[in-house]
Amino acid sequence: MKKFFATILTLCFFSVSSITARGEELSTTVSIADSIRNGEEISTEISLDGDYTCFNNFVKLVKEYALEYSARNQRVTIAISSLDQHEKIRFQLFRNSDGTYKELIDTIDNRVDFVQIIGIMPNSVLKTAKEAFEADAKKAVVDYILPLEANAEELTNYLDTNNIPIYWNIEENELGIGTVEVAIGKYEIRQGDTLSEIAELYDTTVLKLMEDNHNIKDPDLIYAGDFLVIK
Fold first, then answer.
1. For each of the chain's 231 residues, which pLDDT tens digit applies?
2. Segment holding 45, helix H or strand E
3. Is-contact 171 118, C-beta < 8 A?
4. By three-state DSSP, how is residue 68 classified?
5. Are 140 and 129 in contact (CB under 8 A)?
6. Which of 128, 144, 188, 220 has the fewest CB atoms nearer than 10 Å to its CB?
7. If you ran DSSP here, which 8-state letter would residue 141 be given?
């Protein structure tokens, strides 16, 4: 399953100048600008220190900078991973090259809960993409996100035979461009959800969900907007 996370990463190309993130004790500043300017790659792990909302806040920040600096056309690949049952974030920036796809695959390990990617596309493309994801999210992942060199049939068969969620979010912007986010195995909790209902929906158990999600302390107490990893 971990290898399939990497197959949707290599179209995640956008411009980033700098990102400030909360790291050890949620105060670490991560500068991306010098890495891009000097052609240096970066892989940084950030401890959430029990603040599980930090992942979504970090993603939001990435999107803001990605849109703001997209005009610079600095081509990089970015992956944001949840690690160790949501205890940490791994932020990775790759310079695009012929070896980028293999590099991304090689970074996927058993610590990864899921990998979330963010791509920037014109609003005109996003409208069509949104319709496709609404109609069939599994097919849309293959059609819109999967890189050409990846095995589309293999991923399609995997998604068809495994009952796992696909998180997606598409936002247009007044700049004429917007963002598409995708993460396989991520479930965003909705208003009215219960952990037992989610477990039944994805053929798992409440105990397994709690083992895989350290942000859930009480099976009877979950919050809309939080997320779960479902393996």
1. 444 444 334 333 333 333 333 334 334 434 554 554 454 567 778 887 767 677 888 888 777 776 765 545 555 567 788 888 888 888 776 665 555 656 666 667 788 888 888 777 788 888 899 999 999 998 888 887 666 666 778 778 888 888 889 999 999 887 788 888 889 899 999 999 999 999 999 999 999 999 999 888 899 999 998 899 998
2. strand 42-47
3. no
4. helix
5. yes
6. 220
7. I
Token pair, residue 93, equals 């920036």
Distance CA 202, CA 80 (A): 24
Nearest residue to 155 (alpha-carbon basis) of 167, 141, 135, 169: 141
The closest of 103, 124, 108, 98 to 42, measured between CA atoms, is 103
Q: Which of 109, 129, 111 is nearest to 119 (CA)?
A: 129
For 218, which DSSP code?
A: -
Under a CB-based contact definition with an 8 Å cutoff, are residues 113 and 185 in contact? yes
- Partnered with residue 114 across adjacent β-strands are 82
